[in-house]
């Protein structure tokens, strides 16, 4: 069986939408895996979200083209879960959810607490912006 077939089968059996390159590393060499993943991105069976991060696609019933299998926010949340990065909503989203403002935040902003993250996560023209809040950890500890 060709490596591309094994990668496609492995991706199809995974429950989530996000695929990390490190999860597929045991299937073949780094060069072979790079070639297969770039071929899958070119044929639109996967979309590249970041360095070593890919998302599954599905057929869009309206355009008959392939589109990501989840929303950008769901993909980003799954990426952070898989990378074991603890994030929270940004300041504007927290204020909106608490009812302090009626302005709906348009940008995807996540609060990383004291942790500094530079990983670029993007899909099309949307991308994640990071903000660091030194008080977030103190707020979470108090009941």
TrEMBL record:
InterPro entries: DUF6088. Pfam families: DUF6088 (PF19570). The keyword Hydrolase applies. One of its GO terms (molecular function) is hydrolase activity. Keywords: Hydrolase. This is S-adenosylhomocysteine hydrolase. It comes from Paraburkholderia phytofirmans OLGA172.
């Amino acid at each position: 069986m060709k490596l591309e077939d094994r990668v496609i089968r492995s991706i199809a059996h995974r429950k989530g939408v996000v695929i990390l390159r490190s999860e597929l590393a045991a299937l073949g060499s780094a060069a072979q895996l790079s070639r297969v993943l770039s071929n899958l991105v070119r044929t639109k069976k996967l979309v590249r979200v970041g360095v070593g991060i890919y998302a599954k696609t599905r057929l869009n019933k309206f355009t008959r083209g392939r589109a990501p299998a989840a929303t950008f926010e769901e993909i980003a949340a799954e990426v952070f879960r898989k990378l074991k990065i603890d994030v929270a909503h940004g300041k504007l989203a927290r204020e909106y959810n608490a009812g302090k403002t009626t302005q709906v935040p348009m940008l995807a902003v996540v609060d990383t607490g004291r942790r500094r993250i530079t990983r670029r996560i993007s899909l099309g023209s949307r991308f994640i912006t990071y903000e660091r809040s030194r008080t977030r950890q103190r707020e979470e500890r108090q009941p």
